[in-house]
């Protein structure tokens, strides 16, 4: 699961985020000592190969009320219960500490201890989203960064078809920064995303839901999971060649 973090040599970056570079040996040593944190859902863990892996980014998208925020909040419980800290960047204003406390208690965890290791950053602008990564001491020992919802502020500040090129470029820059932070500082990256309705692929076909950000998002993450809710059940689909699925339910413990 875990190993000792590799020591940086004289020519290697001890703070890669600031220097913007690291040796390939340092990067390889990091890759050999990655940690996998459970998502808190057996089905989702199966799709993800055990859970959320440090140095890797996962996008979770779906319609409103599909369970995205539930999955995002409970993801922080795994690193926090193991003595690490987790950062939750909240662009929606939907983070509820009392809900996370109930999730922790339902899973047999010490809620006070766990919540003391989860740091919430309210981000109402893209600038505040970027600033959350520069929070210094609060991110010491941080093994997971969650952004819920990653595209919201970009669509608000740079909305409309005419702004699409600037919006996608700004989003790509932000995602590159997040991925560098995750790789260099050995953090798991969990990104929730909204959907938009677009016309079908053929004339006359019904509209279909796609993740906002399109290929800019999908090409910037290692794994993409779609959540769909129907009749109280949540279906998770790992997008790819096979589109593997797993079913879950939202309970007092979260997404199980």
In short:
The protein is of the alpha/beta class. 34% of the residues lie in helices and 26% in strands.
Describe this structure in words.
- With 256 residues, the chain is of the alpha/beta class.
- The chain has a single domain (37-255), classed as P-loop containing nucleotide triphosphate hydrolases (Rossmann fold), CATH 3.40.50.
- Helix content is 34%, strand content 26%.
- The strands form 3 sheets. A 9-stranded mixed sheet has the order 5-4-6-7-3-10-11-12-13. It has a two-stranded antiparallel sheet with strand order 1-2. It has a two-stranded antiparallel sheet with strand order 8-9.
- Strand 12 (244-251) and strand 13 form a beta hairpin.
- The longest helix is centred in the last third of the chain and has 21 residues, at 164-184.
Keywords:
11 helices; two-stranded antiparallel sheet; Rossmann fold; 256 residues; alpha/beta; 34% helix; nine-stranded mixed sheet
Straight-line N-to-C gap:
22 Å
Taking all residues together, what is the mean pLDDT?
A: 87
SS element count, helices: 11
CATH C-level label:
Alpha Beta
- Helix content bin: 25-40%
Order of H and E elements: HHEHEEHHEHHEHEHHEEEHEEEE
Provide the low-confidence segments as ranges.
Answer: 5-15
- The CATH superfamily is known as P-loop containing nucleotide triphosphate hydrolases
Note the beta-strand portion: 25-35%
**CATH architecture label name:** 3-Layer(aba) Sandwich
CATH topology: Rossmann fold
* Secondary structural class: alpha/beta
Q: What is the overall shape?
A: globular
Radius of gyration in whole Å, from Cα?
18 Å
Structural domain count: 1
Main β-sheet, in a few words?
9 strands, mixed
């Amino acid at each position: 699961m875990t190993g000792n973090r590799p020591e940086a040599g004289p020519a290697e970056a001890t703070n890669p985020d600031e220097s913007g570079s690291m040796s390939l040996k340092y990067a390889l040593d990091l890759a050999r000592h990655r940690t996998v944190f459970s998502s808190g859902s057996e089905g989702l863990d199966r799709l993800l190969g055990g859970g959320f892996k440090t140095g890797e980014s996962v996008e979770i998208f779906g319609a409103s009320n599909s369970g995205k925020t539930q999955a995002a909040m409970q993801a922080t419980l795994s690193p926090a219960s193991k003595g690490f800290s987790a950062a939750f960047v909240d662009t929606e204003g939907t983070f509820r500490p009392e809900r996370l406390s109930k999730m922790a208690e339902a899973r047999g965890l010490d809620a006070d201890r766990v919540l003391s290791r989860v740091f919430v950053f309210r981000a109402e602008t893209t600038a505040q989203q970027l600033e959350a990564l520069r929070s210094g001491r609060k991110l010491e020992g941080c093994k997971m960064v969650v952004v819920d919802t990653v595209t919201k502020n970009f669509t608000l500040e740079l909305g409309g078809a005419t702004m699409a090129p600037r919006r996608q470029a700004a989003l790509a820059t932000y995602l590159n920064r997040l991925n560098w932070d995750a790789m260099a500082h050995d953090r798991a990256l969990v990104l929730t995303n909204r959907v938009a309705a677009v016309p079908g692929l053929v004339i006359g076909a019904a509209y279909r839901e796609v993740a906002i950000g399109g290929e800019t998002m999908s090409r910037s993450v290692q794994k993409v999971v779609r959540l769909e809710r129907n009749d109280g059940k949540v279906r998770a689909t790992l997008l790819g060649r096979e589109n593997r699925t797993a079913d879950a339910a939202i309970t007092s413990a979260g997404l199980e």
